[in-house]
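Morning run. Coffee first, then this:
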Amino acid sequence: MKTATRIISMVSALALVAVLALPNMASAEKIRLGFGGGPEGGTFQYFSNGIASRLSKMQANLEVSNMASAGSVENARRVNSGEIDFGISYSGDTYLARNGRLTNDNNKYPNIYAMAFLYGAPAHLIVLEKSGINSVADLKGKRIAVGGAGSGAAAAAQRYFGAIGLWDNMNVEFIGYSKAAAAIGDGLIDAMWVFAGFPNSSVIQAAASNKIKILSTWDAGEKGGAFEQYPFYAKLTIPAGTYSGVDYDVMSFQDSALWVASKDVAPEHVYNALANIYTKEGLSYMVKVKSTAKSMSVQSALTGIVTPVHPGAQKFWKEQGLTLTPAQAGM
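And here it is:
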C-alpha cells in the first residue's frame, strides 16, 4: 500500500508540475509577424529582409517573416487590412492612401501607421551646361525625360510639374534613366528627371560624357505650391561634389521610404522592434545589409512623416527626445 501511495503521490506531483508549466509554455509561444518588402533584388526587399532577420534573431519569442511585394502601394493596402503587420511604403503613398487620393483609387486606408524614416529618394533635374536652361521655369516647351510610364519617378514628376503649371507645357518623354542619360548627350532631350538616392548611376553616366548642371527644384516648388499640395515631400540638399562638374549644393526635395505598421500591431511589438534596430549595433548591421541605410538615425527618424505615427513608435521616439508634429501625433 505504501508503494502504491507513493506512486499516486508522484503522479499527482507530476500532474501539478505540468499544470503549473502551462502558463510558461503559453508565454514561450512565438509571436509571428509578416513584413512586406518589395520586388526581389530591390531596395525595399533588402531593408525588409534585413530588419526581419535581425528581429527574429535578437528576440527569442518573435518570428518576423519577410514577404515579397510589388512595393509601396501594395504594402500600404496590405498593412491597412492587417494581411501583413509591417511594411515599407513611401511617405507619399502612405499619405495619399490614408486620404483616399491614390491614383484611380478613392478608398481610404486609415489603419496604416508610420514607424520611422528609412531613406530618401530625392529629385534630380539634369540639363547640359551649354543648354541655356538655368531654372525650372526655362523648361517650358522643352523635351524632358521623366522615367518610364507608370514609374514612381514619372508620378513624382507629374505631381511636381503639374503643381507649378509646367506639366502640360513641356514635351514629356517616358523613358528610363539609362536611356535618358544617353539621349541627353545625343541632343534628343533637353532635360532628364531622376527620382532616386544619390549618387545615382545614370546621373554619373550623364556627367561622365557631358558637362551637366543640376537645377535646384525646391524654390520653384515652394513658390508654386507643390509642397503645400503634397506635404510629404521634404527639403534636401544634394551636396557639392556628388557628381562630376557639379561643384555647388543643389536644393531639392525627396520622398521618404518609411517603415510602417498596421494599427492592430501591439504597441509593445512596435516599441521593441524600434529599440532593437535603432541602436548602434542595429544601425551598423543595417548599413552592412544595404549602404542606403546610412540615412537611418534616431535624429532623422521622423523625417518626411506627415501621417500619424503608431502609438508604440510615439512612445519610443519621445523617449529618444524627439518631438512629434500634430500630424505625426494624430491630432
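Residues 2-27 form the longest helix (26 residues). Good start to the day.
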